[in-house]
Design goal:
The protein has 122 residues and is mainly beta. It has one domain (13-114): Jelly Rolls (Sandwich), CATH 2.60.120. It is built from one helix and ten strands; from the N terminus they run E-H-E-E-E-E-E-E-E-E-E. The longest helix is centred in the first third of the chain and has 5 residues, at 24-28. Residues 37-91 form the Cupin type-2 domain. This is Cupin domain-containing protein.
Length: 122
């Protein structure tokens, strides 16, 4: 058995990200689940690109502010207390508009595989 108490605010942000990403799964060495907390300022995004995953399912749970998610079906505004779920092969791009407010989201993806592909909507 193994248990971990993680002080998320004390984790160093991951480098080279468009917003502040603190990796819970990385801090404790999880291998089957990716779990991150994102602090997203107005005009920032969570992913490095509009993308989709072959196998990974993702859940974005917004704890503060409002996260916007662009999809081929349109843009969704997800307020604090709500979650947005992406099934495999579902293109998405999560961000906070320039005129939005600072937003915090807890994002979980499973399995923790590197199966990300850029999505070109043209």
């Amino acid at each position: 058995m193994g248990y971990h108490h993680v002080a998320v605010g004390e984790l160093d942000p991951e480098p080279d990200r468009p917003s502040t990403q603190r990796s819970i799964s990385g801090a404790v060495g999880l291998e089957r689940l990716a779990a991150h907390v994102y602090e997203v300022a107005p005009g920032e995004e969570i992913p490095l690109a509009y993308h989709y995953h072959d196998e990974q399912e993702e859940v974005f749970y917004v704890t503060e502010g409002e996260l916007h998610v662009e999809t081929p079906e349109g843009e969704f505004a997800v307020p604090a207390g709500d979650a947005f779920v992406c099934e495999p092969e579902s293109p998405q791009f999560a961000f906070v508009p320039k005129d939005g407010e600072a937003t915090t989201a807890f994002v979980v993806g499973a399995p923790a595989v590197d199966d990300v592909h850029p999505y070109d909507d043209t």
